[in-house]
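User: Please work through this fold.
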Amino acid sequence: MPKQDLVRLIEAADRLAAGGFTMGPDWHALHDICQRHEGEQPFDWGHALCHRIEGDDWNADYWYRRAGKRRGTGSMADEWAAMRTELSAKA
């Protein structure tokens, strides 16, 4: 996985976070990035976050399992902060 793609994931999720984790263009941008990298752990994790934001827990849990992660119990901001830390170390 090219590091530039991981940077795009982080930047897209940062924009989504800045907008309050709401559905809209930033959500769709992150979802599109994640779909293009299906099967790659960081992107599957981002995909899980997208579906958690959407309120589709069943689909979110599917993507969390694919990413080897569990759905967070805290806020979206808390989950993104933890994700960002881990993903930034790989970028």
